[in-house]
Design goal:
The protein is mostly helical. 45% of the residues lie in helices and 0% in strands. It starts with a helix and ends in a 33-residue tail after the last helix.
Length: 440
């Protein structure tokens, strides 16, 4: 009894049922810590026995048995004995089994049919296998049937007017308007317009520059990196100049706004001064009344206005004549420029189309959207590799083909439609069941 009393005295006082802890004293007084103490005791026992079980890895706690128990296997074999056939098949022999497959090149015969006199080499391929491999390599009939004919007579006309309705359907829907035939667009007969500044045709796959190779010559690489560096410097200069112009524009706008405020203040002050002067002295009372003009004065004014009107008319005629002359000169210059361009295009037909610069584009594009910028095809000094295996693949073949088709005029530049417009539909209730006639 004395030991129980001593244990109770060593434990902290606790209160098992404490519905509320609103007071500050109740936060730290008579709190039940039985679960915490028990958990600490369990951890101390585990540490004494060799370590905490929750912190040990699975390999220290478990073992994977891959061999199995021989005692259990013997007890199982006593109850379930294997068949004799399975025991015979389970025995392995050093001699391989006889191959019963039929071989076309076998030299063993039945004594009546002699083996073929033509012998192939040990590593040769049969004629049948050679024909099969040749058909796989070059396509054969499986590929030739999908080849488009290149002669003058097309095999299929997509714009041919084919009647989609059968005769009985046409008589059934005779009250409807006949469908309009599908006609080819006018631009289908025209050649695509190249978007280059020179107007020359661009090759579908441009010949790459020697400086963009994975292991280029130093002169080619140095020339390319210098050219691209000058382009970037010029682009940065234009950007800084545009920012400077925008800042000057904002400063001028702010200055003009301040001047307008000053002018409004000065106008108010002058108006107030004029009002004071009018109140001080009535000058309008001492003004002289305008007298009626004589006929001579009226004729003189009329003559002067007529001369001014005539002088203005002559100036307008001279200006119109100068504009007409300028228009004729501009038309001649444009015609000469177009003729020179056509001569350049005619001379460039024989030259290689890959030499055309596809970065300098014409001002008037096909479509409202901008063309995508070409990627910077340049290898930096730290990216140069002496082996093709160490080269990292870059670029996007799909984007290159898409930009090439845009520059060659095969497609128009359009923005992707992320949210297409839905057709507006109006639902009405028809009262056709009321439209009826009573037969007499």
């Amino acid at each position: 009894m004395a030991s129980t009393t001593e244990l109770l005295r060593t434990e902290a006082p606790r209160q098992f049922k404490q519905p509320s802890r609103k007071g500050k004293k109740a936060w730290r007084k008579n709190v039940d810590l039985t679960d915490v103490q028990e958990g600490l005791e369990v951890v101390r026992d585990e540490i004494i026995k060799g370590g905490v079980l929750a912190e040990k890895p699975s390999s220290d706690l478990f073992a994977l048995d891959t061999a199995g128990s021989s005692v259990i296997q013997k007890a199982y074999n006593k109850v379930h004995r294997p068949l004799k056939a399975d025991q015979i098949l389970a025995q392995r022999s050093a001699i391989p089994a006889v191959d019963s497959r039929k071989r076309s090149s076998s030299k063993v015969t039945d004594g009546v049919i002699e083996p073929p006199s033509k012998k192939r080499k040990s590593g040769g391929v049969s004629h049948k296998e050679y024909a099969r491999l040749r058909e796989l390599a070059y396509g054969g009939q499986a590929v030739r049937k999908d080849v488009v004919k290149t002669d003058d007579i097309p095999s299929h006309d997509p714009w041919e007017d084919v009647e989609s309705l059968k005769p009985e359907q046409r008589s059934k829907f005779s009250f409807l308007e006949p469908p309009k035939p599908i006609r080819e667009p006018k631009t289908l007969k025209y050649a695509p317009i190249s978007l280059t500044a020179s107007g020359r045709a661009v090759a579908a796959v441009k010949k790459p520059d020697a400086g963009i190779s994975y292991n280029p010559a130093f002169l080619d690489w140095d020339e390319l990196i210098t050219k691209e560096g000058l382009k970037e410097v010029e682009a940065e200069r234009k950007r800084l100049q545009a920012a400077e112009d925008e800042r000057d524009k904002l400063e001028r706008a702010a200055a003009s706004a301040r001047e307008q405020e000053n002018e409004v203040d000065s106008a108010d002050e002058s108006a107030w001064e004029g009002l004071e002067s009018e109140m001080e002295a009535d000058e309008w009372l001492s003004r002289k009344r305008p007298e009626r003009k004589t006929p001579a004065q009226r004729n003189k004014i009329k003559k002067r206005k007529e001369l001014e009107r005539k002088a203005l008319w002559d100036a307008q005629m001279k200006k119109r004549a100068r504009q007409a002359e300028e228009i004729r000169n501009i038309a001649k210059a444009i015609e000469a420029k177009e003729r020179a361009k056509m001569d350049v295009i005619g001379r460039s037909d024989d030259s290689e189309a890959g030499d055309v610069n596809d970065r300098e584009l014409r001002r008037r594009k096909l479509g409202k959207a901008l063309l995508p910028e070409p990627p910077l095809e340049l290898v930096l000094p730290e990216e140069l590799q002496d082996s093709l295996r160490l080269l990292k693949p870059e670029g996007n073949l799909l984007k290159d083909r898409f930009r090439s088709m845009l520059i060659r005029g095969k497609m128009e530049t359009r923005r992707p439609i992320t949210q297409p417009k839905k057709a507006r539909r109006k639902y009405t209730e028809k009262w056709t069941y009321k439209d009826f006639k009573i037969k007499p």
